[in-house]
Protein 1
Amino acid sequence: MPLNNRVDADPDELVQLIGPNGERRENAAYDRWVTGVDGPALQALYEDMVVIRRIDAEATALQRQGELALWPPLLGQEAAQIGSGRALREDDFVFSSYRENGVAYCRGVDLTDILRVWRGNASSGWDPYGINMATPQVIIGAQTLHATGYAMGILNDGADAVAVTYFGDGATSQGDVNEAMVFAASYQAPVIFFCQNNHWAISEPVGLQAHVPIAHRAPGFGIPSVRVDGNDVLACLAVTREALDRARTGGGPTFIEAVTYRMGPHTTADDPTRYRDANELEDWAAKDPIARLAGLLDSQGLLPAEVTDAVKTKADDVAARLREGCISMAEPEALDVFKHVYSEPNSWLARQQDQYERYLASFESSNSDSTELTEGSR
Amino acid sequence: MSTMTFGRAINAGLRKAMENDPKVVLMGEDIGKLGGVFRITDGLQKDFGQHRVMDSPLAESGILGTAVGMAYRGYRPVIEIQFDGFIYPAFDQIVCQVAKLHYRTQGAVKMPLTIRVPFGGGIGSPEHHSESPEAYFTHTSGLRVISVSNPQDAYVMIQQAIASDDPVLYFEPKRRYHVKGEVDESVDITASSMNDARVVVEGSDVTLVTYGPLVPTARDAATAASDDGVSVEVIDLRSLAPIDFATVEKSVRKTGRLVITHEAAQSGGLGAEIAASITERCFYHLEHAPVRVTGFDIPYPYSKLEFHHLPDLDRILDGVDRVLDRPNSLSSQSGLEG
Ligand SMILES: Cc1ncc(C[n+]2csc(CCOP(=O)(O)OP(=O)(O)O)c2C)c(N)n1
């Protein structure tokens, strides 16, 4: 069976406001969405990207040191996440997958909360209503339906908030994502489908999921779409603002394909050298999103040493707090396993909990430390 | 005879099945170059080509649904579900299509699919990566469900599953993938049946029934119990649907006491089926009500707490004490009993 391994990136089709060497590119359709982005605003985007990369590196290090069980790095995808994340309003609501820590950062997540799940200390890291962002989804594509339903609720309420859902190129193969587009189009729901096409779904190239550019599918569902340079933070901001405006003004859903690249492994458990050509990585490293914005800032005299130093200090500080928060996280208690299964009492579970309590109590040394009871270690 | 890990034994069995029958094709996410996230299909795409070892788009319903079509066309698809929790998007295709097509067509259409599912916990994974969904499938007529517990069985039974004209769910205990054992690759796979339970340890006081990941734990429990003067017979079911009740019944008639252990949640689980069926079959031979030692009725917990959920040696021994009316954690009758 011939396999489809076509690589679909057509650079001419991508919305781009910053060129590969940091030069500002005029774009008649999209410049108007970023007119207010002045020097300080650009510097703030730069700071966000540097900080989130630093968070990512720190978490990767924590995993390597055995403090986290697993970590899904976002290295290379900073512009797509910060550009779109910074476009959102507080009352918008995000439904993401597991890689969108940059978006969570924009929503104002408490940094330690990001790590709770990956340390194995909790099933979810934060209260979704605290930062208007659902906790990360592992089941590929499921969150796109949740976002669409949330948007249907917004519509019913007569509000002008927007639901934004993030997912990868691989996810676009799932029925759920396609069904979400059907619902979104049918109800003209105010939802943005933000696909980060990072070219790989673990070991599978994007060509195995799609034979045409992913964004070309949406119009078939009746949803306007745009392909944006996902390594261009300004362009990501612009296309997201346009889509938000469309949604807020009754124009319904938009599909955004941010063409970017996952420069690291899928997760810390993955070995990309088994399936990925080193040259490919090099090509994309040359399109590094942070270097690109730095180029623009530099050309405008907006990146003096005071700025880079201040940003670096902030990033180091954030990383130090992240590490401290991770290491000092409270350990869960044995009987926590029975908490929150239901909101109302359940007699089956109550019996099991009672019996397990008595079981634990039957040990003379009565040790409720989970690690003492393991039969093998991870 | 050679020594190999559990994972390697499945790989060798797949290879043998593919060599023997050109209609055997493998489908799944990341099974090609990567060899699957657990490397079970390592090297097979290189040796058999992309048309026989197919990396699938990221769509479980799609994988199962297209496998149905390939089976219509005379192929024997072997599907890898990457992790237990990801079988649910394919649930509809499995229970409404795969399970029913033979019945619906009065036997005209065969569905010789094998669905490999790395299952169970104990590896410190995030949510959806440690489920024990077997009862959903044993509850569905038309499916065969088996679970392997050692390299030799893994090697033989993957081939038996593929050779079966019925759809088979083949549950692989992922926390045992690296366990090593002797594998005789020259065995005649038609000489045994994947439907037969196996007596792992013989004993006379208590019958301990289990399968998959808990078989080694149950064996250790039997050893510990014997140090304490209690003789435990351990049965590895191997087939979960249908269950070889004859073997369990024979054992319980001898011991009069039954403990069942599995990782899956208790209520509506296989332990309930076994307890009920054995009570029906040998009520007058039982000296104590069957006891279940299982996971709790909770979503699989986050990894720091998973070893509370998973039955371990001590919990199994406590269950053995209960059927023997020896002092156990529930001996003092205070608190809830419902
Ligand atoms: C339903 C389901 N199937 C399989 C998986 C295993 N899995 C986790 S991530 C992943 C690849 C996802 O790729 P993509 O959608 O492109 O997102 P990316 O990881 O590149 O951000 C797979 C197959 C899963 N989590 N859920």
Protein 2
Amino acid sequence: MSVSTTGPDPMGISGPLHGVNSPDPARSGKGSRNSRNSRNSRNSRNGRRRGRPGSKRASKLTPYAFVAAAVGLLVLLTYLPAANMLWYSLNDWNGFGPVDDFVGFDNYIEVFTNPEIFSVFVVSLYYFVGAFLQMGVALYFATILSFTTRFSNFFRGVLFFPYLLNGVAVGFVFLYLFQPDGTLDTVLGWFGLADPPQWLGDASVANYSLAATSVWRFAGLNFILFLGAIQSIPSDLYEAAEIDGASRWQQFRFIILPGIQRIVGLSFILAVAGSLSVFEIPFIMTSGANGTATFVIQTLQTAFSFRQVGLASAMAIVLLVIVLVVTWVQRKVFPDEKVDLS
Amino acid sequence: MSRGVSSFLKYVSLIGAVIVVLLPLSVVLFASFKTREEYSTTGPLDLPQNWFNFDNFVTAAVQGDMLTGLINTSIVLVISLAGTIFIGTMAAYAVDRFAFRGRRLVVVLFLIATLIPSVTSQVATFQIISGLGLYNTKAALILLFMGTDIIAIYIFIQFMQSIPVSLDEAAMLDGANRWTIYWRVILPLLKPAIATVIIIKGIAIYNEFYLPFLYLQSESLISTALFRFKGPFGAQWELVAAATILVIVPTVIVFVFLQRWIYKGLVSGAVK
């Protein structure tokens, strides 16, 4: 092996990493237990050892051939639209013909000054509060189901199941539940509540109903994520705590909560980003009527119903910036202790 | 003693949660078996008289275009999944096993992309799809489902890291080229990760509503077929209920058989 790996590499095939590792052939002997860097340069050396002329250039291009499709689609369907969106947002454009009516920041000024647009942010607050309730409920059930419980698989399955359901189906199920004299009213009647509100028809109630539907639908995801995190905490910690006479609450406070801090942090960004980009449930159930239009419904209607693609792009960019800021703040508050993919 | 009380409260709260989850679904199930007349004269919590009255399901499936929706969804699902798996495993192979210029950039590009809420960027993605001449075709959906899947790539990379590099090296000594290694060594070993991606992504595609609603107006997918019930059948709740149950049933079946995989997949997909 050392015969072929020593010496300069005139083509610079394996990039800068190769230069670091190759003068030390001894390293490659124990390379399989070393960092990925040395591992990779070892691979490319092996590749070179086959020594067919012309295979050098080919092996240099190989990794690009493997990522090409993924990166190509990523650029085509994520970054190109994002860049276009930025450009559209600076123009007054209706979606047809050339984009040539440059208006600078007018669209952004419109987003922040037109009360009809800006007020839909208020709707997000219902979902934001709902998301916190949802996390609380999920954390409670994840905690109690992580201790020994009868039928725990059944309870887990039922609690998680709504998350898997089709959004349109969930919308219809709750449209049915909320009907006047429907299921919910009947159940409330048993408890003596005779005069229930119009759950979806009354503008002062509709957003609560929709946010509750959203909690019903998504609590299962939080639940399963929390449960997974709790179960990855080594069980001898509980045993030790049990021996020391710690109560269940103390075990929760001092073992579970710190142990799942990271996933709680992640759920928090998902909650904020999610409550700003709520779309399916209100769109399916009320089409945004009765003051239930969310920012995304408003954005998409502006783009596709009112053909104001420039303005809609500005709205989408504003949302994107808010999501990025929230994520950045979350990273600062809950730094990621794990080494990431890069 | 207090353990007894807390245990009692624990089960009460669990049963309460089960009722909250299952009641809304049960009443829809009840409604789906009722006849028109029965529906209008009984309360939502009354059980149907005849549990074998499948008329509503037949009407919903035939008149509501649910069968076409199911077929179209299956086509889109199978092609998109195959595409996602090949594109994703190849990218993961490159990112994990090669040191190449731009590798870091590729990883960062994937990371940042997860932050963009895709529903809003449709404003601009729409222009790209219609520019490619794919508007109102299944190809548009297939392309979007293949192209927007970053979670799958993460799962593959994560799993790839647990496959020993010595296997690649052994194959290489036997004279295998990179493609052969990917195809013969890596891909078979990635089976568990592929199963995870098929489940998670399959459920996501089956449930996706907005993309088919926006890009495939003239044909039905399962979601859009159900959504159309809002119009002509809006007042016939027993039909809407039957259609809703038809959409839910496959999810129940998949869930019952693949529970463990789904949990695992979601945990690894969301955390990493």
